[in-house]
């Protein structure tokens, strides 16, 4: 089975052959996956070198000429380092792009804090109009990428991860997918958190919704799922509580409770592996079960 | 302060107006008040903007959306009075709009907004964004087979301090983006200056360069139109120091 990033390179290579409007912009990371595409489309596969401000600025310029740029690097360098370029060179110019990240929150714990960006989705929440996809499987990543590439001049963030679920789900962009139905509250599992959430809620009589798109947030889907027990737990693979405001908005006319679980703000100054970090954050099945069961008692 | 009662005015050129000349630009700029802090920044660009729009750029009000137009990106978006005056003189916007400068309903801000003004390619004001956007614009035109249009970007010498500009100029030189042109208005406003001169920085990265008197229209025109096969082109236009 390939990784989400490998699927991204293969699918984008195919899309470049079919859609003359698409262009890929890279900053040295991920270049190997696009060698074939660069040979076939040298003017539409652009590697600017280790220059992330230029990565986003050039994407903005490409979009100003009518192309649809797809920019890719690690989340730290795609969202955080050129943050003002995202705000001004894309949003303020009112042009679109597809930003595809990898290694968002904890994909490379041995790499340490410099390569962790658990605040990426929260940062994008400060700007208007972003679609944010968080696939939990390479097949879902492909579905959402193909949708994003064809989605007009919209601004899309596609958050790829090495962390994944065992099986793909039939995701529809922008829709919460009911996975399990219960009477004692609702758990929303985002992207790669689904497997751990399903294990954690085994036997708890809770509804489980799956989100591979978090912005726009499927308020109607959440509203329909909570029934007469509007107690909601969000389990997100990035900063805890990132979708709290969206959930509160969805339930604004109801007395309700929301618990946001995810990556903590505190730095964990440990290296190690993805499972070790998920356990440290309380995002493994055992940690999730304890907190979900306590909240939905 | 203007009343916030109506939608922003749209800036469209009136047909049949007589053309304005360079000597009338100061009076057009005089119609705009409220941004005196940026006055030196505004007048430093006046001659460069005029020569570009009058004699170099292949774009006008009627071709402001044409795919094969030349692009002019004002990166140095502060002090845009000279820019607005030249755009008004060339018919991109009506002269009658100029006094609204900075008002709530005005399309003319103290930094330009591309969504409010025809002919304005980028919204700018924060330093260091225009040259990277211009690189992307040159790449996008090339990818679509539009090899005729020139892309011009205007930056200030202090704006040139921003690291993003150095990312862009190094890449553009290495990539040989020969449709890309940068004008640097040098009014000695950078705190630490640039050792060896600004043009040397571009030349090191493979650009064609020229350094000229930014008030001399013939020298500017010659520098702007100098051939530069296979390389991007930078023109450093020296004007009187900001604090002189």
From TrEMBL, chain A:
**Which segments constitute the Transketolase-like pyrimidine-binding domain?**
2-168
Query: Which Pfam family would be a valid example here?
Result: Transketolase_C
Q: What CDD domains does the record point to?
A: TPP_PYR_DXS_TK_like
InterPro entries hit by this protein: PDH/Transketolase (IPR051157), THDP-binding (IPR029061), Transketo_C/PFOR_II (IPR009014), Transketolase-like_Pyr-bd (IPR005475), Transketolase_C (IPR033248)
PANTHER family, sorted? PYRUVATE DEHYDROGENASE E1 COMPONENT, TRANSKETOLASE-LIKE PYRIMIDINE-BINDING DOMAIN-CONTAINING PROTEIN
Q: From the Swiss-Prot or TrEMBL record, give the protein name.
A: Transketolase family protein
UniProtKB/TrEMBL annotation, chain B:
Q: Which SUPFAM superfamilies match?
A: Thiamin diphosphate-binding fold (THDP-binding)
Family annotation (Gene3D superfamilies): 3.40.50.970
Limits of the Transketolase N-terminal domain: 38-226
Return the protein name: Transketolase
Q: What's the domain of life for this entry?
A: Bacteria
Q: Supply the InterPro entries for this chain.
A: THDP-binding, Transketolase_N
Source species? Kitasatospora paranensis
